[in-house]
């Protein structure tokens, strides 16, 4: 098949070239804007039956006026002096700051409103409400105990990672930072900082976009630089680059079209993963094809004959390699977390375009370049490996003629022939401690959002300002939602049940890390006086006003909606830990245990209890992704193993290849843990939670690519040489090209480190190191050393079960040992 393809491409190369140019122009023209087809958010990608999402659905039905979406928090504070905030400061908040915020809402179309008559929602701006210290329901909670800070809450109707929030956050940011008229109204010594989960989301999206742009730029620059260094021929270096560029543009355009049709889902940021994997894999495919082309030219073939022969000889290996990667990465479609599913589909689908381009567009470009492709190394029809246009006596010519990579792998090959067992064991012992580190630290992952952002981002600065005057958990309270159709939470029975649970939690307040509890019995927290008791001591209009306020507060904590009226209540826990910290999830588990034990008998019968808020959502995210990690690990290993068995027809050797790459993954993960801990021991909260999944899937799939290249070449060499010589010959033939591919792919992956998101930096480092480890240690040492020991009969009678039966039967060990010691 690939022989026919090679002949066809060489004969009609102009047609293939025009086809690809028209294809990239056509799909780019019809594809919609990328931003219009991607979905934002994080928790929205969790399964619909996640407990926190179920709780949020109930909350929206029970408390529709509290949209439970996201918010922008302005921290107004006066740090210096013992008096704290002055009356003028509070007047400024109510008479100046709040009206200006209302103006921003009006400029964006007015406050977000909800129309219930037809169950549809009509939104203007995404600002739904502005709360200050004068708010009748929660105003008192916005004042800090030290009276040095007051919060202004701008509640939004959108999720915290919704891109539409950016305009609102930036408008408020411009107001407090750049509006000179407004700044003149601020009292001297008064500071305003921006915080809130929506601000965090805006900074996350901005950092992700900046990372995407930086990654794409550095990917191209690094690929160009590495290709020129490796090939020493600028025109030849441009051929893989153009091939991959076309593939990426077509892949992203096709994904945008499919996303617009609703056939695939796309999350914001997925283009970074697609771009990086296509540049890494695509350049590798082109490198192998061009390397074989050079080999064919040395056999006295014409330029076009060499192209046809190259496709015929390596086409199957490239297709098998791409198929292995596509299948391995495609296993992510079985994940429950939506982003993993979408990444698996997008990357697997995109790899098909770069494979087709490598087998058709790259040869067409070689035909177009002709004898100029290898300039300045040659200027002849039958290209020789020489300096070509350069003077033979020049330093550059002598450097070009020297086969540095070949001499390195010649030395490695001789070492493996002499002491395969010692080299294998010593290499394993050096790497094994890092594999143990990865196993020991495997669960030490960070789910924090703020830990991903640079310390100078507004949301990080603002959060620190909040935590300077309020409990760390104030930025994201943990809400307990109780639903019981048999209990009226507005009467004495329901009130008594909540009071008993509150008392139980207060008894364990320090152990549970609870800073405050707010519910219908303690609407302003555990330190505030009882509102009903205060109302009883009042008379006249003051008493009426106090009772009206109590009723309003009760509606805040007990649902008044039809069907759920009086049967749903909420309890807000303010925890001492940052809701995005790693420890907050452990704290949540302790709270859950305490709530279950302290739940009164009246609430145990028919009560549905939900936990909602940032900590609860992150906990659900962790549970889902942990399950996905275990499931995808098994599926990827199994699928790649099956493909290897089909391709190689050697189950035992295929199993060893799988184990070797899995070992490489563990070592890489351990190294990554060690490096990022060493960079910042005090603040290291663990690797970002996405790193193990993407690292495992990509590294296993890509790592087996190199094994396929090596093993297929070993099979080819063993047809004319004895088993051990076949291994050595294949190592020498593929060593340089696989190492070059590894450097290119590692350089591509390292471009992920150009962004500001810590998670992307960690993933970029891990992928780059893992590829280098695989191409310089695992593939050229761990695998060949094992095969040499196997074919020499080092494993005795077990050798026939480990994949060397045919060789051991025809060539006993002494004969092999003698042949290699001469």
TrEMBL record:
It is found in: Cell membrane. The chain crosses the membrane at residues 12-31, 214-231, 238-258, 270-290, 311-337, 343-369, 423-445, 630-648, 655-679, 691-711, 737-759, 765-791. Residues 236-368 form the SSD domain. It comes from the Bacteria. Its main location: membrane. The keyword Transmembrane helix applies. Coiled coil: none annotated. Keywords: Cell membrane, Membrane, Transmembrane, Transmembrane helix. Signal peptide: none annotated. InterPro entries: MMPL_dom (IPR004869), Mycobact_MmpL (IPR050545), SSD (IPR000731). Pfam families: MMPL. It is a multi-pass membrane protein. One of its GO terms (cellular component) is plasma membrane. Belongs to the resistance-nodulation-cell division (RND) (TC 2.A.6) family. MmpL subfamily. This is Membrane transport protein mmpL8. It comes from Gimesia chilikensis.
